[in-house]
Specification:
Blueprint (H helix, E strand, L loop, with lengths): L1 E4 L4 H12 L4 E5 L7 H4 L6 E5 L5 H10 L4 E4 L10 H21 L4 E7 L24 H20 L2 E7 L16 H7 L20 H7 L7 H12 L5
Helix pairs in contact: 3-4, 4-5
Length: 244
C-alpha cells in the first residue's frame, strides 16, 4: 500500500486516484476532515483506507505501519501556509518530515516522494525551469525556505536508508477541491466578485516562468490533459455548482 499524507486534500486525493488507477491501494492520512471525495468514495475498503493522523506525532505516525503494509510514501501534508510565525511553521513542517522519513526507514519503503514547490525557482531568471537548474540561496517566504531544505533532508535520508527519493516541485495547483481562498490562485474570488479584468499584464510583472516537463514526459509518458483554455471554463462551471 502507498501512504499519502494529506491524502484528502486537492492534490492528495487526485494523487490517490492516480495510484488506484495504477492498481496501488492507498492509505490516506487526514488531520481534520475524514470524508472521501466522490471520486474515491465507491472504492472497496481494502483499496482505500483513511487514517486520522497528526503528522507531528512520531508514535502515531509509526503506528500506521503497524496496521498496514506500507511500501511507499507520498508526503504531501503541510502546515498552514499563512502561519504568522515562521519558527512555528518551520518546526511543524520539519517535525512532520522527519517523522515521515523515520517511518520510511522503519518500514523499508521502496520510494519516498516529497512535496516541494515551484517557488524553489525564485531567483532563477531563465525559464523554462528545469530540474538541474542551480537554485539561489534566497529566503523570500517560509514555504520555499522549508521546501528546499526538505529536498536535501529527504535525499540524505534516502541515501542512508536505501530508498529512492522523488522531489515533487509542485506548481500553482487549482481546480475542484482546491482552497477557495487560496492566495496562489484568485479565480474563485474573482468569479464570485463578478469582476471585469482589463486585458494585459500588470506593470512590473516578472518574466513568465514555467516548468520544462520534457523529462517528465520522457520518463513517464505524461501528457497534460488540460491547457488554460480548457481548464478555466471547466473550473468555472464546477465553481458555479459547488460551495468551494
Amino acid at each position: 500500500m502507498i501512504l499519502v499524507t494529506g491524502g484528502l486534500g486537492s492534490i492528495g486525493s487526485h494523487t490517490a486516484r492516480a495510484l488506484l488507477d495504477l492498481g496501488e491501494p492507498v492509505v490516506l492520512t487526514a488531520h481534520r476532515s475524514t470524508r472521501l471525495p466522490d471520486f474515491l468514495a465507491d472504492e472497496p475498503r481494502d483499496r482505500v483506507v483513511v487514517e486520522p493522523l497528526d503528522t507531528t506525532d512520531a508514535a502515531a505516525f509509526l503506528d500506521v505501519g503497524a496496521r498496514h503494509r506500507i511500501t511507499g510514501i507520498v508526503h504531501l501534508a503541510a502546515a498552514p501556509h499563512d502561519s504568522p510565525d515562521p519558527v512555528a511553521y518551520l518546526r511543524a513542517e520539519t517535525t512532520a518530515l522527519l517523522n515521515a522519513l523515520e517511518a520510511a526507514t522503519a518500514w523499508s519503503v521502496r520510494r519516498f516522494a516529497v512535496a516541494s514547490t515551484i517557488a524553489a525557482y525564485v531567483g532563477v531568471d531563465d525559464p523554462p525551469w528545469r530540474e538541474d537548474a542551480p537554485l539561489p540561496t534566497v529566503a523570500p517566504h517560509q514555504i520555499p525556505v522549508f521546501k528546499k531544505a526538505a529536498e536535501l533532508f529527504s535525499t540524505l535520508a534516502g541515501a542512508h536508508a536505501g530508498f529512492d527519493v522523488v522531489t515533487l516541485r509542485i506548481g500553482t495547483i487549482w481546480g475542484p477541491l482546491g482552497l477557495p481562498d487560496s492566495p496562489f490562485f484568485a479565480l474563485p474570488r474573482l468569479l464570485r466578485a463578478e469582476l471585469t479584468l482589463p486585458p494585459g499584464h500588470s506593470t512590473g510583472r516578472p518574466p513568465e516562468g514555467h516548468l520544462d516537463i520534457g523529462r517528465l514526459a520522457r520518463d513517464t509518458g505524461f501528457t497534460p490533459a488540460y491547457d488554460v483554455g480548457r481548464a478555466v471554463p471547466d473550473y468555472v462551471a464546477w465553481l458555479r455548482t459547488h460551495e468551494a
